[in-house]
Specification:
The structure is a single chain. By secondary structure, the chain is an alpha+beta fold. It has 4 helices and 13 strands. The longest helix has 11 residues. The radius of gyration is 21 Å and the shape is elongated. The model has no long low-confidence stretch (mean pLDDT about 95).
């Protein structure tokens, strides 16, 4: 692999400038892929070089899943100091008021693999509800005919089971956990509405086999590996 190309991507400079930096530092411009990530000492500073970067962000409420937005703060801005920032893209979306686990990656193939309907990677949520909900019938579908793939649905009986990132409105009458193998627009909110309840607060706490770390502060991100989510 050409180290000048990787260096240019990681520090946001041209390849010509990257080649000059490597020459002046006496660093071989070729590198074996298995050696990455690698730390380089250039111009008196240590730079970690990545060929790809994956992260889990604990998304706050009132932040949109977008690269730019004229009205709201974006989740993208919360990763501004992340490696390969310019190439990061969200894996799916969380709406404005939904908090919790939001994946980001520079690998388009991995993004497609996680979001393709045929893969049916489950997303797990916790919800604060205005009312208890009923159980879905075997032929359950939403008002537009869409049939959600509900993997799990249960009431949360104990407060210690609630994720710290789930907002807890004072008027919440019930809490629930739900896992769906899909990502339709407002799917979880529409499911609970169809079951006779109303979502007051919603937090995604899992994606595939990755759980949102309970010690990850709201608005912060953490590097992950692809196998953390799905083998």
């Amino acid at each position: 692999m050409r180290l000048d190309q990787l260096l240019a991507r990681n520090v946001g400079c041209s390849r010509a400038v990257a080649r000059q930096m490597l020459r002046e530092s006496g660093i071989d411009p070729l590198i074996e892929p298995e050696a990455l990530p690698v730390e380089l000492r250039i111009d008196g500073r240590t730079i970690t070089i990545y060929d790809a970067f994956h992260a889990v962000l604990n998304k706050p409420a009132h932040v949109v899943t977008a690269l730019t937005d004229a009205q709201h703060a974006t989740a993208y801005d919360l990763l501004r100091d992340a490696p390969l920032f310019d190439a990061l893209r969200p894996v799916g979306r969380l709406d404005l008021d939904t908090t919790g686990l939001l994946l980001w990656t520079t690998d388009g193939k991995w993004l497609q693999r996680l979001t393709h309907p045929k893969r049916a990677v489950p997303r797990i949520y916790q919800a604060a509800l205005a009312r208890p909900f009923g159980l879905p019938p075997p032929d359950f579908e939403l008002d537009d005919g869409y049939r959600p793939a509900i993997v799990n649905l249960a009431t949360i009986e104990s407060e210690h089971q609630l994720h710290p990132s789930l907002l807890r409105p004072a008027d919440a009458a019930a809490y629930a956990t739900i896992a769906v193998a899909g990502g339709a627009y407002h799917e979880v909110r529409r499911i609970f509405a169809a079951l006779g309840s109303h979502v007051l607060a919603l937090c995604r706490v899992g994606f595939g086999r990755l759980e949102l770390p309970r010690d990850l502060p709201v608005g912060r991100y953490r590097q992950i590996q692809p196998d953390d989510v799905c083998p």
